[in-house]
Design goal:
With 541 residues, the protein is α+β, with helices and mostly antiparallel strands. The protein contains 17 helices and 18 strands.
Length: 541
C-alpha cells in the first residue's frame, strides 16, 4: 500500500516506523494530547474534597456557566464511510484503506447503521429528529486528519432541541436535574497522534480515522463540576443502555470537551469561555472544572479578567491544573461547506417509529420505576447505574423476590465480591433465579441470613442451585424447638458463672449465650427461635 501524502506538514522528513507514519514536527506541549488517552491517576478523596471546598469558597459572588461537547464512538462493525473494521488495540495502520486514508479519487459511502444509532440517541435525549439532514466538510489541518477536512454536520444536524434528566447522588447533595441538549450530529473521527518521549517526532496511527462518532452538544445549563460530571455519566449510561457504543473513556470511546466561563452573580451576559480537553474520567472532568472556575474567578477578583481569553486548555492529571494548548478557532476558521460526495439523509416517519418501538427502557425511566417500588434514592441510583445490574435485579424480581431484599443483597455482598474480584455481574455464576430462591429460603425459615451468605459465595463462584448447595453442605437451618431448647440448656449448664452474672443484672450476657448456641449449632440454629427460647429460659431462671 502506498504511503499517503500528509499535506501541509512544514517539516523536513516523513518516514514510517513499526507500521506508524512519523513526522519530525513537534507540536506545542507535546507531552499532552487531546487525542491520546493517558493513564488515570488516582486522586485521594481528601484532595478532591479540599479542591471542591476551595472552589466553593473562592467563587463567592460569581457563578460558572458550563457546557459540554461529548463525542461518542459508535460500535458499528465498519467505519462511517468505508468497509474497514475498527478494533481498539489493533496494530497501527492495519485497519485502513484508501478511503479512510484520504487518497485522491476515493468516495465515501454512508454506513446506514450510523444513521440508526444517531436516531436512537436523538430519541433517547428527547430531541427533534430532522427528517432531512446533510453532511458538511469541516476544514482544518492536523497531521492525523489525512484528508485535511472532517466529514461532519454543520447547520442541519440529525437531532436537536432535546434534554436529559438525571439524579445527583446523595453524597453530592442529591436532587433532580434537567440539562438541555442543543444538538446531536454525525461525524467521522480523526486518527491518533503518539508523541515520542524526546519530542523529536510524532507517530500517526490512522486506524481510528473514519470511525463513526456522534457529537452531543449540551446547553450551557451546568453550574458546578459535579453537575457536569454527572451529566457525562448519564450520557454514558444512555449510550450503554442503547448499545450504540461501549462508552469507555479510557479507550477514548467517549470523550468530553468542557466549555467553562464565569460571571458575577446576577449578570446575564456570559463571560469568556475556555475549552478544556484531555480528561479521561468523570472525576477528572469535575476536578478540571473546579480548577478552571477558581482560576477564572481569581483573575476577576484581581482585576485581570482581560487575561481570560477564548482558548483550548489541557488538563494535567499529575499537577491537577489546566495549561494553554492553543487559541480557540472560530467558526470561520473551519470554512464549512456541504459535502459534495454524500447525498442528504432523508428519513421517514415509519423508520423513526420503528426505531422508537425497539428502544429499551432508559436509565431515567428505570430510576422512576424503582423509586415507585419504594426503594431509597441510593438504591435507585446504584441499581440503574449499570444496565447489566439493572437487568439482573429485574430478573430477580420476575422470579418472585422482594424488591428491597433483592436490592440489599445485590448492593451488599454481591457488589463487594464484584469489586474485590474486579468482575461485572454478568461474569459470575449466580443467576437471578437462584438469588430469588435464596431470599425465599430465608423467608421460609429453611436458612438464616448467616447461612445464606455461605450459600451465596458457593453460588457466585461455582454456580448450582440453592437446594443442591444446602444438601451438599448440610446447611439446613435447625428450626425444631426441642433441639434448640436442648442446646440452650446445655450452654446455660456449661456457663454457670456467666449465668450468675446475668441474674445479677448483667443482661448483655444474653448475646454471649446466643453466640455459644450458634457456635454449637455451627450457625444453623434459627435466630428467631433461639432468641425466643433463650429469653424464656433466662427469665425463668
Amino acid at each position: 500500500m502506498a504511503l499517503p501524502l500528509l499535506l501541509g506538514i512544514t517539516t523536513p522528513t516523513l518516514f514510517r516506523s513499526n507500521g506508524m507514519f512519523c513526522t519530525t514536527q513537534r507540536p506545542p506541549l507535546a507531552h499532552f494530547t487531546a487525542r491520546a488517552e493517558s493513564v488515570q491517576t488516582t486522586v485521594p478523596k481528601a484532595t478532591q474534597q479540599a479542591t471542591k471546598e476551595a472552589t466553593e469558597q473562592n467563587s463567592q459572588g460569581f457563578e460558572a456557566v458550563i457546557g459540554i461537547e461529548t463525542h461518542v464512538q459508535l460500535s458499528t462493525i465498519t467505519k462511517a464511510f468505508c468497509s474497514c473494521p475498527y478494533n481498539y488495540g489493533s496494530q497501527p495502520n492495519t485497519t485502513v484503506c484508501p478511503t479512510c486514508m484520504g487518497h485522491p479519487g476515493t468516495l465515501p459511502v454512508l454506513n446506514a447503521e450510523v444513521v440508526e444509532c444517531a436516531v436512537k440517541l436523538g430519541l433517547a435525549l428527547n430531541c427533534d429528529i430532522s427528517m432531512a439532514s446533510k453532511f458538511d466538510r469541516k476544514q482544518y489541518f492536523y497531521p492525523d486528519l489525512p484528508k485535511g477536512y472532517q466529514i461532519s454536520q454543520f447547520d442541519i444536524p440529525i437531532a436537536q432541541k432535546g434534554y436529559i434528566d438525571l439524579d445527583i447522588p446523595l453524597e453530592f447533595g442529591g436532587g433532580h436535574r434537567r440539562f438541555g441538549i442543543t444538538r446531536v450530529h454525525m461525524e467521522e473521527d480523526a486518527g491518533k497522534l503518539l508523541h515520542s518521549e524526546s519530542g523529536s517526532y510524532s507517530q500517526v496511527d490512522l486506524n481510528r480515522a473514519g470511525v463513526p462518532l456522534l457529537e452531543i452538544v449540551s446547553e450551557p445549563d451546568m453550574r458546578t463540576g459535579i453537575e457536569a460530571a454527572e451529566y457525562g455519566a448519564e450520557i454514558q449510561r444512555v449510550v450503554r443502555y442503547l448499545g450504540v457504543g461501549n462508552g469507555n473513556m479510557q479507550e477514548g470511546s467517549l470523550r468530553c470537551d468542557v466549555n467553562v466561563s464565569v460571571r458575577p452573580i446576577g449578570q446575564s451576559e456570559f463571560g469568556t469561555k475556555v475549552e478544556i480537553k484531555n480528561m479521561n474520567s468523570f472525576s477528572a472532568v469535575s476536578r478540571a472544572i473546579d480548577y478552571e472556575i477558581s482560576r477564572q474567578v481569581l483573575l476577576h477578583k484581581e482585576s485581570q479578567a482581560d487575561q481570560i481569553v477564548q482558548e483550548t486548555r489541557l488538563w494535567d492529571e499529575s499537577s491537577q491544573k489546566t495549561f494553554t494548548m492553543r487559541k480557540k478557532e472560530g467558526l470561520a476558521d473551519y470554512r464549512y461547506f456541504p459535502e459534495p460526495d454524500l447525498p442528504e439523509v432523508i428519513l421517514t416517519t415509519e423508520y423513526i417509529d420503528e426505531i422508537r418501538s425497539s428502544m429499551p427502557e432508559l436509565p431515567e425511566a428505570k430510576r422512576r420505576r424503582y423509586e415507585n417500588m419504594g426503594l431509597s434514592m441510593q438504591d435507585v441510583i446504584f441499581l440503574a447505574n449499570d444496565d447489566n445490574v439493572a437487568h439482573f435485579f429485574d430478573s430477580t424480581l420476575e422470579h418472585g423476590a422482594d424488591a428491597k431484599l433483592a436490592a440489599n443483597w445485590i448492593m451488599g455482598d454481591i457488589a463487594a465480591y464484584l469489586k474485590d474480584e474486579k468482575l461485572s455481574i454478568d461474569e459470575i455464576k449466580l443467576t437471578p433465579q437462584e438469588l430469588s430462591e435464596m431470599i425465599a429460603s430465608i423467608k421460609n425459615g429453611i436458612t438464616s441470613g448467616k447461612i445464606a451468605k455461605e450459600i451465596l459465595v458457593e453460588l457466585i463462584t461455582k454456580g448450582g442451585t440453592v437446594k443442591s448447595v444446602i444438601e451438599e453442605k448440610d446447611l439446613v437451618q435447625i428450626a425444631d424447638p426441642a433441639t434448640i431448647e436442648a442446646m440452650v440448656d446445655q450452654v446455660l449448664a456449661d456457663n454457670p458463672k456467666q449465668l450468675e452474672q446475668y441474674q445479677a443484672g448483667k443482661t448483655k450476657l444474653q448475646g454471649f449465650f446466643a453466640g455459644q448456641v450458634m457456635k454449637a449449632s455451627k450457625g444453623k440454629a434459627s435466630p428467631v427461635l433461639l432468641n425466643k427460647i433463650l429469653g424464656e429460659k433466662l427469665k425463668g431462671n
